[in-house]
Amino acid sequence: MTYEMKAVFWGVLLACVDWGWGQENLTFDGDVRDFAISDRSVYVVTDDRLYQLNHDFTKVIKRDTPNVVYPKQEAPLSNETYPFKVNILLPFIKNKTLITCGTTKCGYCEILDLNEISKSVHSENIEVGSLDPGDSTIGFIVDVGTNSYIMTGRLQSRVRKACANSDQLLDLRNTLEGQHGGIFSDSDESTTPYIDARQKEKFQFVDGFQSNSHIYVFSNVPQERQVRVILFKSENSKTNTLRHFQGATLKCCGNTERRELLSSSVIQGSGGLHGQVLWAGVFTAGNTSDPINTVLAIYNISSTGPQLKYNDPDFCYKGCAEALPMGTTQDLHPEAVVFRYSSMTSVLAVRHNSWLVFFIGTGDGQLIKLAVDKAYKPACPRVLYNSDDDRRVFPKMHLDPVDRKHVYMALRNQMVRVPVAQCSEHKSLKDCWSAQDPFCGWCESRCSFQGDCLQPSAWISISEDSQQQNMVSYQVEKSSSGERITLTVKVHLNVNGTGSLTFTCNFFNKRGDLCDRTSPAPAFPQCSCLFSSDQLPAEGLNVTVKIRVGKQNLAEKLMLTNCSDISGPPTSALCSQCMSAGCSWSNDVCSWTTRSANSEPIQDVCRLSQSGLNYSEPVIFSIEPSVLSFHGRNHALMNGENLDHVTKVRIQGHMNCSLKESPVWNHTGSSLTFHIPSGDKGSVSVCAVLPDGRCLGKATVTYGSSPSCTGLTPSTTWASGKRKIKVHGSHLEFVEEVVHDHAPQTIQTKYSSGTLWYHTPPFEHINQPVTSTVSLRVANQTLACSSQLTYHPDPEFTSYTAIKTGNDMRVTIEKRADKLNITTEEILVFGVQEENHDVECVMDTIETSNETDSVICEIKNTPNFNINSLRIRVGNFTKILLPKQAAPSLLIILVLIPIIIVVIVGAVLYSYNKQRKMAAQMNKQLDQLECDIRNDIRQGFVDMQTEKCDLIENVGAIPFLDYKHFASRIFFPDGGPVMTSCIKDIGQDAVKVQPDESCQALSRLIRDQVFLTSFVHALEEQKNFNVKEKCAVASLLTVSLHGDLPYLTQVMEELLRALMEQPSNSQPKLMLRRTESIVEKLLTNWMSICLYGFLRESVGQPLFLLVCALTQQMSKGPVDSVTEKALYTLNEDWLLWQAQDFSPMRLQVLFAVGTDGEVSEPLEVSALDCDTVEQVKEKILLAFKTKFGFPYNTPLRQMHIEYEKDGRFVPLKEVDASSGVLGEVTMLNTLKHYKVPDGASIKVLSKTHPSLSPQSSLKDDQNYSTKYFHLIDPDIDQDQKKNPERKKLKLKEVYLTKLLSTKVAVHSFVENLFRTIWGTPNLKTPPAIKYFFDFLDAQGESKRINDSDVLHIWKTNSLPLRFWVNILKNPQFVFDMEKTPPLDGCLSVIAQAFMDSFSLAEKQLGKHDPTNKLLYAKDISQYKQEVRAYYKQVRDQPPISSSEFKEFLHKESKKHENEFNESAALRELYKYMQLYFDEIKLKLDQNGAPVELKEQLQHVKSLFDSLKSCSWN
Hints:
Helix content: 10-25%
Largest sheet: 8 strands, mixed
Radius of gyration: 42 Å
Shape: globular
Number of strands: 83
């Protein structure tokens, strides 16, 4: 027997690797059959391959499983090849090997190197696991004495009759060649011990493990369907270990028996009393429709009763045929049932201090974390991972053995690594505690895992008892005499650390210390304060408690109330008020706390309180829909009775956790509408909340998976829209609407019989195919389809013919062929008579061809019906079609044929004679053409070799814009009245205008971070709130908070963290790539504010020099005045390759002075003979400003120039009577047209009379580009003899050298600018860049992102892409200048090269790539090295402290205070607040905002409403 090994591949797998929410996902090309984990690697088996991954999935080794070749014994002799299917995968850590066993033709095992699976250590044909891949198999390493064996369990194969296999159900196999019998042998020194089963049909092994000296095996046995555990005591040999075993039956659970075990996990380090072994199992009743079909139960399996020797009812030592009669077993019942769910599939148990933490996989693709305290009381479950579809979680899960902070699980063809907790997300002790996560505790100044908290720091975590609502609770007790009150405060914390614990409490009221001297000393975790009852006034007493635990200080504000004064109807609200005040609630009455009062949670005490108010109890009949996606549902309908007084709907998850409430609307008494918020997969209960706080009625809502859209049928539509499109995918019944990216409105969908469809919206003004992205709307989520829809122009019907056939009329309609694939069902045709009488034409068929399609229909039973036209309707497209013109008569055709023949013969003879004359002329023209092309190529070569960087660098004073105009162009790039209103005039700069009361109130409100973040999130969740509005809100916030940049920075960081947590950002490399949210625009503005000083002091000069250099270089060659294309440019799209020959000129320009004809000294101006009159004026004005430093006092449109010829001045005009005309297009006059010589004198005058036309320039004409031309001839046939030099053949490729010439000329300016931006080792990075880059590094660390490329991309998207490219492409944001289109084209190429320098992609460019990329291709590699050095330089610089950066921000705010109109920005901001007022209030409720904040919001609304009222009055 031999085997063939396929290639082993190193590197990153060609699969989807996602990093999001701290999770790593890896998708394989086959379903996962098994996986295991070692200290260094994760091993995954699919049908065809074995994979070795490092723990974070960043490195993957792929090994194809071998094909094993067997010699065929029968004739004809040949080899048979069988694939190796692995069913046992065991990392043997002690021996540094990986054991793989399974089946080929028969049994087969192979041992691989644990650290490099490409190395095979041993292989042989042997049956260790089951031969049938579908049969049950287990295998795990056990220690027996000093030896390690494989405990294997398998069924006898029913499919491999030709293979030698035994009846052994359970046995011990060797792991080493040196053991007795050799590797994989099951024999002992004197016998072959094994365990057999009495009944093997449907037998199923589930799990097995070794705990200390005991070995446990769990299985489902067929007899009476029950779950069995058998226990072996590890002795000194295989025989002694197997022959004596104990057994028990696991009973589960309560009234409903669940007789099948799905998954289990030993609770490592169970310890407990007498060294008990705790074990958890997932049991099922087999009823998938039951919402609690599966349960998770905890068992104590350390003792299974008296030893059963050979009379176990299911198992026996060696052959069962010789075994004793069946006996009975002990029943084991669970210690506790801790979780119930519809479809649990797997469980992993972890002990952490006194807590048990269970990680539970489900059949619908969730990973749930459940913490259970030492009394087996479960906390609220939390979903750590939620797949979009219903991928079933594999029965086995593993904890990372190295960091113990990640869980590995498999879902179909995917491996997922999920963090057990996200401690670093919590930024305060209170937040860390509120997470109620046993893994998270507060250490010094951060929330961390216990292992990350270094001694002697104290690690403060949640208390070991059951969950508490508040970190600090209190009770008030009145003495029997009524003279003294005892206030007892308890902190629900657990402290781990070395040394003694500092614990102090101080109680204060407004007068000072509250407690008297008899108060007992504090004793962790509680302290008491005794004071006189006279100090408790009727209106209550405000008390501040300052608590110190270790180094942590807590402050709690309490409102003490006389418990006897809390009275009223016994509602749950009154009960909550009583308990929250530290009083006692019993028998529906609030009273003072007694010493014997228990400390049950408020919700448990108040749940059964009855209402004394007279409300009819609501009854819920149904909720539509009752099954929905986990994204939620926007408009759900509740049907029932007595729903009139319902104020909101409450949705409660498992064990009444994750309580959410939703407002209601559209009450009718028997129905109401409400919003179902997003939730975790599974069933939740719904009840109706009354004004008295009671929640009555009961219904169930089930959260399912997310819809997915995999295709659209048909995939095309016509421009006018309303084509019926069928959506393909899964869970489409949850879809509410459809959205097209080109159309703002949402489209209603129809769902029936498993099919979702909708009608397409129109796509206006298209004349060629255009793709449109289709997305599904589910609640407030938008889910893109994997395929796009293509819009084509509307179908083109050209004509029709109608033929009578008896009483019917057959109509054939001609249509141009297209790619719409229209069906007969989609076309409606009506015949139209003169009196507008329509008759339907019933569709028959559509015949297609290459150029013309025929649509055939019939008008039935209309013998006297004649039609004048057809009305054709396809969706929203309607066409009135006239009949095809009748063909000419046969007689005319016969007359015309001889005439045509005579004409053709004459034409042929004439053509032959003329052709001979043209041959010589063409040869002459070809010679001339070749000579012209040679000259063009030679001239381009000369330009490249002689090009010098002789552009001037002294450009005088740089015209910087002041700060507020720079900032406003960044904030509001489109300009408009909002920008104008937010900038103060020059005279207002120094005046601080006091805002009115309403603006002051709004200013205070947005300075509350909870409100501002809720406000932003509420707006962004609105589906009609577009990107333009998001940018406007971000800029208005920037202006409003410009005076408090530290707070603006704090808010921006919080919003960025929230952005990173969004599901839509599960691909971290795409984050911050575009500006599609408020915080992304906020980041752009923030960068602009913080880098303005650096921009002006360092980058401004090289940027302005580059702009001037580009302008001067372009002016060296011709620029077409109409298209604005230039001969010297960096951008091929703006290359004037059609340019004719030109000559440089120097003009002596004289400026008229006064009114008596005096002129100034001549100013020398460089120009070209091909320049138009207006271009000459522009060059004169530029030369004047460059020489004198200020602009000429007459604008261009009021300038008039004259040329001195023979002692008199000839006026030069753009167009006059002498202008050339081609067809109907007029050529603009040039210096060559006026025959102006080199060195000529040009006189500049001011126009004294206004133009008769309102236009003062030809360019004001909206038809300028079609009425006039300059250097590029219009597309009109003309006589070449009239202007032969303009008709020389020009090849664009010949002129591509001009791009290189321009690059050489400005290259030093480009490099100087780039290196100023990304600095040198001697330059210190601007504080904002260092601070923000450190912020991004911290976020990457908190999310466990180890891929340095992700951080590089984040930084690139934040700084170069978001700020510098904006500045490079728009110098008019920085300088007082205008940007021309050709300048914009050059800057775009430079900006592209700049961004390519930051790219991590290494693309090999070729001849088909655009010249814009090729131009700087050789420079990019050097720039990339400099960029990497720059990023490293920033990272290596010492961090900037928070206080230093706040000081920097304070200075920036101070520099520019009073430059913006904050009141105007606040008033604009209020418009959005008013528009989405209800949504903002709802978001505040969802975020648990304090009542005071909502009252402040209402107060702001009242102030602005009163302003409107006053204005109206």
